[in-house]
Amino acid sequence: MRTQQKHTLKNTESFKEQLLLWSQQFDDIIWLDSNLDSHRDNQQYSKYDAILAVDAFTSIQTDYIDAFDKLKEYQTLTNDWIFGYLTYDLKNDIEDLQSNNFDGLQFPYLYFFQPKKIFLFKENVIEIQYLNCVEDELEADLKAISNETECHLERSRKVSNEIKIKLRIHKDDYFEKVNNILSHIHRGDIYEANFCQEFFAEDTYINPLETYLKLNSISNPPFATFLKCNDKYLLSASPERYLKKEGSTIISQPIKGTAKRSENIEEDKKLKQDLFNDQKERSENIMIVDLVRNDLSKTAIRGSVKVEELCEIYTYKQVHQMVSTIVSKVGKSVNPIDILKTTFPMGSMTGAPKISAMKIIEQLEETKRGLYSGAVGYFEPNGNFDFNVVIRSILYNKTNKFVSYSVGGAIIAKSNPLKEYEECLIKAKAMRTVLEN
Q1: CB 255 within 8 Å of CB 310
Q2: Strands 166-167 and 82-86
Q3: Is the pLDDT score of 150 beyond 60?
């Protein structure tokens, strides 16, 4: 059981920063921020403006074998809020697949925890939920949070990163690999594959919170995440929702199609319109919409899968994105974990047909994806959930002193390897700027 309190905040942004600073003492942290002030117009499905969950009371960590069944058991037994992540490589639990590529990050395959302390933001109101076993800490915590000072934050932001980013796949190799995918497409093995490449730095120290705050201020995305799991960190500026359950409604919002922004208003409008009219980008997006419709139909009430938005252009601080929204209805007897299992990994990060695409990209990519192109989110006690797609993200293993970010793009028959490479660089820009100053 949880003790609940609500408070009206005088300055929400200031409280958020103080809360994040205060949270750094814990080994288990998940901070989710919708950055709603930047794009309230395309956040009709957002329930909370931001959430912080800290300090594990119970947790589950597992490899891929029977991972979804173990999660189902944990979620059922806990019957409370749980927060955590699913790595891309849980595909090996669902299908007869393998992940044998290099992994410098070493994140566990699946991790969820039941937090002792939760903070839920909605406009200028904060709802605080503490497990009864720690309710006596609530007042002291609020006092400690309000004492976290601004000057501490300003100082921590000025730490400079002397980081040399390396490429896991060099440009000529990238072209060769994309041409390999194109030959699979022309043979009819697949019609779309999401191919990713890693940028990394070894023997490197970063300040995770400072790095996250910089990344978030550059990108202002709707699914920003700061995650700490002991010595492992995710600093994410994700623009993409993977899957949300609200009552009997399931919502998926895949992104396929990216264009850069311009400071010139007229040019920016033209870039947006060009993306909307781009036949290659539209066909990429529509292929994934078909795949998502098929995935959702596995748990949906018959006839309830609908495309609410097709190829809509959403504008973010760094890029314009082409987003589609697919919804379905599920019956009361459907377990929430089964909805995730039958749609995972998300189509926007695999390709189509899904299993063939995953086999081909496993052969051609040089890095195990791990948490990149997985999902972070939470379950409410009533079984509702919300998960993002882990893209536009920096991953950090503090013990290994290893920093990594990956970017990818959808390869279809109309793809031009050079243009795909350039799109990857657009997507990587914010992460590179933050790490290399």
Answers
A1: no
A2: unpaired
A3: no
Among 117, 214, 244, 256, the one annotated catalytic: 256
Residue 158 known to be catalytic: no
The total of structural domains in the chain comes to: 1
CATH number where 332 lies: 3.60.120.10
Q: Which has the higher per-residue pLDDT, 36 or 352?
A: 352
Q: Rounded mean pLDDT of the chain? A: 94
Over residues 238-256, the pLDDT tens digits come to 999 999 999 999 999 999 9
If residue 242 lies in a helix (H) or strand (E), which one and from where to where? strand 241-246
pLDDT class of 39 with cuts at 50, 70, 90:
low
- The parent domain of residue 344 ranges over 2-436
Say what the pTM is.
0.95
Task: Tell me the CA distances in angstroms from 367 to 59, 198, 213, one per residue in order.
Answer: 28, 7, 27
Residue 407: partners with Cβ closer than 8 Å, 6 or more residues away = 196, 197, 199, 391, 392, 424, 425, 427, 428
For the record, the structure tokens of 8 come out as 């009206």
Please report which helix (H) or strand (E) contains residue 93, including its range: helix 91-94
Q: Which residues pair with 403 in a beta bridge?
A: 201, 396
Tell me the C-alpha distance between 88 and 107, whole Å: 11
Question: What residues have CB less than 8 Å from 381, skipping those under 6 apart?
Answer: 79, 80, 81
Of the candidates 240, 284, 365, 420, the residue annotated as catalytic is 240
* Residue 240 is a catalytic residue: yes
